[in-house]
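User: Let's play a game. I give you a shape written as tokens, and you guess the letters that built it. Ready? Here's round one.
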């Protein structure tokens, strides 16, 4: 084989090898581009899901049971810390401490039945009153609930607090936590809510209802009282622990 022909063959082999190398690099680039596109698509879907969750019921995804609470109370009139038909003849009063584990259990297990069978039907309206017995942390929590009530979201705040309750006296009742609850409860004007919850008038209301609970000889939370056509003022319901007992007391009061 002549030297010229050998050089031409080596040149053709080199060109073929370079062509194969370029083809392989091109495939690798396309693979990387495709993988990046898939990643971006997945990320976009994730963002849409997060945005959608944040928009549900005006709540925050860090809170438990926001949608469940809003569904439970949907369609029932609210005024201040009272939920139910304003014309209802009977009023059921709950004296509770938002840090109280027993209040949380009652709110989750028994209260929904009372709301469905007596409040939603118009037989009674339900009023929450603070009874501070756990620690000083309960006072700003109670004031925050009252401030939410001034915007028609008091009971949403109370119920949502119970669903996200931390360990009592642990320091979890912070401004950030209360603000998160207010947003989840659907409080529209957070700036006004902040002003209201820190006002002396609202703080005095927390102290006043605590004193009232003591005058009714309550010693634990939650405690209940009822008023209606068949009662003389506010009648304490001592020793009643079930939803059925309270529903019967409501019927007797009316």
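Assistant: Ready! My guess for every position:
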């Amino acid at each position: 084989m002549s030297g010229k022909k050998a050089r031409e063959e080596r040149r053709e082999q080199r060109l073929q090898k370079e062509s194969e190398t370029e083809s392989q690099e091109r495939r690798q680039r396309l693979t990387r581009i495709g993988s990046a596109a898939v990643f971006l698509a997945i990320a976009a879907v994730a963002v849409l899901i997060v945005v959608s969750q944040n928009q549900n019921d005006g709540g925050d995804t860090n809170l438990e049971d926001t949608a469940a609470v809003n569904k439970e109370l949907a369609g029932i009139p609210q005024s201040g810390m009272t939920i139910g038909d304003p014309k209802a003849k009977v009023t059921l009063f709950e004296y509770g401490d938002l840090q109280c584990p027993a209040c949380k259990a009652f709110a989750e297990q028994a209260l929904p039945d009372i709301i469905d069978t007596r409040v939603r039907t118009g037989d009674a309206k339900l009023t929450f009153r603070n009874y501070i017995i756990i620690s000083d942390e309960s006072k700003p929590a109670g004031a925050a609930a009252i401030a939410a009530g001034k915007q028609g979201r008091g009971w949403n705040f109370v119920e949502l607090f119970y669903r996200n309750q931390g360990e009592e006296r642990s320091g979890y009742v912070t401004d950030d936590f209360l603000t998160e609850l207010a947003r989840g409860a659907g409080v529209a004007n957070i700036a006004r809510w902040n002003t209201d919850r820190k006002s002396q008038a609202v703080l005095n209301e927390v102290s006043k209802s605590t004193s009232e609970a003591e005058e009714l000889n309550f010693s634990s939370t939650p405690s209940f009282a009822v008023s209606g056509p068949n009662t003389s003022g506010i009648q304490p319901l001592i020793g009643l622990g079930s939803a059925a007992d309270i529903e019967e007391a409501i019927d007797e009061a009316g």
